[in-house]
Amino acid sequence: MFALDWICACLVRSMAFVLLCLAAPGLGAENDVAASATPAPLVLEGLGRATAPIDGPWQFHTGDDLAWASAGLDDRKWERIEVGKPWEAQGHYGHTGFAWYRRHLVIPAGQAKDWQLALFVGGVDSAYEVYWNGAFVGRVGRVPPDPVWYIAKPEPGAVGSSQPAGVFRLGAPQSGVLAIRAWMAPLVLFSPPAGGGLLSVPRAGSMEAVTGLGMAASNRWILGNQFNLLVVVLSSIIGVLALLTWLRNRERTMLFWLALAMFSPGELFFTGGGGIPGLTPFRVSYGLIGVVIGLHDTALWFLLLALLGLNGQKQLVRWTRIFAITEVGFDVLDGVLQLFDWSRGHAHFFLLGDLAFTALPVLLEFWGLVLVFAALRKRQDAARWMLAISALLVELMQAVDDTTGIGWRWRTHWTFDAHLRTTLFAIGGSQVSAYDIGDVLLLISIIYVAWKYSGEQSQRQILMEQEFRSAQELQQLLIPEALPELPGYAVSSAYRPAQEVGGDFFQLMALANGGALLVIGDVSGKGLPAAMAVALIVGAIRSTAETSDDPAAMLATLNRRLHGRLRGGFATCLAMRLEPKGNCVIANAGHLPPFLNGEEVELPAALPLGLMPDADYETAELRMDGGDRLTLYTDGLLEARNAAGELFGFERIAAFLAVARGAPEVADAAQAFGQDDDITVLTLTFAGA
Asked: Is the pLDDT of residue 493 over 50?
C-alpha cells in the first residue's frame, strides 16, 4: 500500500501548489474611454404586434446616481458601449458594482395608440433596475444595499411576479429615455472570464409581443434542458426508492450511499448549478453547490467501495473516510463565507477565502480515480467493469471541469473543459455533450450494478436465514422441551431466546439413584455464534456427566475443554446435583445464584468457563424441605428493561418469586416488562421425602 500512501500525500500537498498558481489576481483598472457626442435617438418603427431590438451604441457610465434615471439628464459626455456583451469585454475589465446604461428612443407619432409599450430585457449580470423617462418600472433581483441575484441568466420566471422575468410595462407608446441601472456582484473563484452589464440586446414592443418573448425564453430553456431534467427525475426516483429501502434495513449502507448519490444531481440542478434560472438566490446557490458536490463525491466513493468489492482494503477505506470528511468540511466552510455580505466591501477577502476552501476539495475529486484504479486490479464481472470505466470517465471529467474552472477567469488558457462541453448532438432540442453522456452511462451502470448487488445480498440473506433455521432446529434438540420425571420434585422450565437462536442453555439428566444433574448457563454474545457455542457446551456437558456427577469436577472439566474454543468469549454456568431426599450440591462458575422461596442463595464466587484453564470451583450444600421452591435463571430475566430504561432487577425478582410461580409465568412477566436478552427460567418444587 506504499503507492496508496504516496498518492494520498500528493493530493494533500498539492494544495500549496494550487494556492501559488491561482493567487488572487489584481483587478484590472478601468479603461478611460473618450467621451463622445450623444448618439442619434433610436427610432422604433412598426411596433405593436412586432418587437424591435434596442441595439446600437448606448450611453454608459460606471458608478451610481439615481439622478441618472432622469429623462432630462445631459449624458453627452458619457462613453458609448454596445449591449449584448459584458462591459468587462469593452474596456472595463475587473469593474464590479454599479454602472448605468441610457438610450434615447423615438416612437413615430403616426403609430396606433391602442396598445401598451413594453420592454424585454434578457440576461443581465447580476441584478438591475429599469427606469422609463425617470420613473422606476421594475427590476430583476435586487441591487445593494440588500442585493439579491441569481446564478443563471436569463430568468424565465420573476420571483413574486405573474409575468416572465425581464418583461416590463412602460405604458402608452411614446418617445423617451430608457435607463438601466445594472449592478455586478463581486467576483468569486469560478467567475467567467468576462461579465457585467447587459448580456443580451433588449427589445421593445407591445405588452403581448414582449410577454411572448419572455414565454419563448422560458420554453427554450425547458426545451434545451429536457434531457437533463429527465436524468434528474430518474435519479430522484431511484434515490427515493433506495432511501426507503435503506430505512427498512439500516444495515444495508450501500443503499444509503446510493440514495445520496442519486439525490445530488437534482440538488445541483434545482439550486441553480444545473441551470435553473431565477429559482434560488446566488448566495444560497453558491453556498450549497460545493457542499452538494462534496456529498456527491463522498457518496460515490463509498458506493464504489461497496459495489467494486473494495471494502476489505482497510487502508483504502480509511483514506476514503479521511478525504470525505476533509472535502465536505472544507465545502461547508466555503459555504459559511456566504453568510457575510461581502458586497459591501472587502470582497478580496472573500475571494481569498473562496480559493483557500475550494482548492483542496477540487484536488480531492481525483480520489475517485484512485478507487477506480484499485478496482481495475481486481477480477470484476462485466457489470462492474462498466461501472468502473464510467465512474473513471465521470470523475475525470468532473475533476477537469472544476480544476479548469478555477483558472477560467484568471487566464490559465486551459481549454479541456470547453472541448468536453461542446455539443455532440441534440435530442428534441436538448444539446448533449460529453459530460451528459458520461453522467447517463454512470447512472445506468450504478442502477444495474446496485440491482445486481441487491440480488446478491438477498441471496446471501436467504442462505443466512437457512443457516439460522438449521441452528434453530439444532438448538430445539439441545434444549429439552419434555423434562424427565424426578421423584419428589415438580419441575417447570421456560426458554425465551431474544433472536431466532440464543446463547442460554440448560440440561436436566436423571441419575440412577433417583436424583438428577441440572446444569444451566449463558454464553457471551448473541445470535448464530452464541448458538454454535451452546451446541459445543451441551455436548461437553453430556459427555462429562457420563464420568462424574460431582458439580465442581464437572465445571473444571468443562472449563478445560472450552478454554481457547469460545473465540475470546466465555460462559457462565451453574451445576447442581439433586438428591431424592431434598439434599443439593451446587457449584457455580460466574452464574447468578438461584432463589430459594424468594431468597437468594449464597454461593462461592468463581470465574466463568473458558477464561483460565486451571480455574478452581467449589461446592456448596443446600437442604430443601417439603414445599420449598428453587428457581434458577439466566441474566436475561434480571436485565429485562422497560421503555423508560428501568431494569427488572433483583428486588422485583425477589418480590415476584416470594409467591409460588412456575417458570413460564416468570418468563412471561419479564418479556412483558421488556425483553433485551435471552431468558431461561427453571423451577424445582420439593414435595418432601
From this structure: yes
Let me know if residue 348 belongs to a domain. yes
In whole angstroms, what is the distance from residue 168 CA to residue 142 CA? 15
What is the amino acid identity at position 325?
Answer: I
Q: In the chain, pLDDT over 90 holds for what percent of residues?
A: 24
Question: How far apart are the C-alpha atoms of 649 and 639, rounded to whole Å?
Answer: 7
Instruction: Reply yes or no: is the peptide bond before residue 154 cis, omega within 30 of 0.
Output: yes
User: Which grid coordinates are listed for 445?
Assistant: 451502470
Say if residue 434 is in the same domain as residue 490.
no
Report whether pLDDT(1) > 50: no
Mean pLDDT over 392-409 rounds to 73
**Is 591 within a domain?**
yes
Q: Give the containing element (helix H, strand E) for 575.
A: strand 571-578
Q: Cell digits for 295?
A: 456529498
Residues 361, 242 within the same domain: yes
278 domain-assigned = yes
Do 49 and 124 lie in one domain? The reply is yes
Do 654 and 599 meet the contact criterion of CB atoms below 8 Å apart? yes
pLDDT, tens digit (0-9, with 9 covering 90-100), for 223-234: 777 777 777 788
By three-state DSSP, how is residue 518 classified?
Answer: strand
The 3-class SS string of 226-259 reads HHHHHHHHHHHHHHHHHHHHHHHCCCCHHHHHHH
Strands 42-43 and 97-106 come out as parallel
* Whether residue 212 is found in the same domain as residue 242: no
Work out the number of other CB atoms within 10 angstroms of the CB of residue 642. Answer: 12
Q: What are the residues whose beta carbons fall under 8 Å from the beta carbon of 341, sequence distance 6 or more?
A: none
23, pLDDT greater than 60: no
Q: In the numeric block, which cell numbers belong to residue 609?
A: 468457563
Cβ neighbourhood burial of 258 (10 Å; 0-12, 13-18, 19+): buried
CA angle 325, 327, 332 (to 5 degrees): 90
305: its cell numbers = 467501495
Cβ atoms 159, 203 nearer than 8 A: no
Please give the tally of structural domains in the chain: 3
97-106 and 430-432 as β-strands: parallel, antiparallel, unpaired?
Answer: unpaired
Same domain, 239 and 198: no
End residue of a domain, out of 178, 201, 216:
216
> Any idea what the CATH number is for the domain that residue 186 is in?
2.60.120.260
- Per-residue pLDDT for 275 more than 50? no
Identify whether 25 is part of a domain: no
The pLDDT of residue 163:
58
- What is the per-residue pLDDT across 614-654, written as a single tens digit (0 to 9) for each? 899 999 999 998 889 999 999 888 888 888 888 888 888 88
Based on the fold, state whether residues 319 and 424 are members of the same structural domain.
yes
Neighbours of 332 (CB within 10 A): 14
Domain housing 275: 222-452
Write b or e for each residue in 556-572: b if 16 or more Cβ atoms lie within 10 A of its Cβ, otherwise e. bbbbbbbbeebeebbbb
Give the Å distances, CA to CA, from 278 to 124, 131, 157, 194.
12, 21, 7, 21
- 120-134, 145-159, 180-194: range with lowest mean pLDDT: 145-159
Q: Say yes or no: 342 and 396 in one domain.
A: yes
Of the three residues 185, 216, 247, the one that is the final residue of a domain is 216
Q: How confident is the model at residue 328 (pLDDT cuts 50, 70, 90)?
A: very high
Same domain for 94 and 142: yes
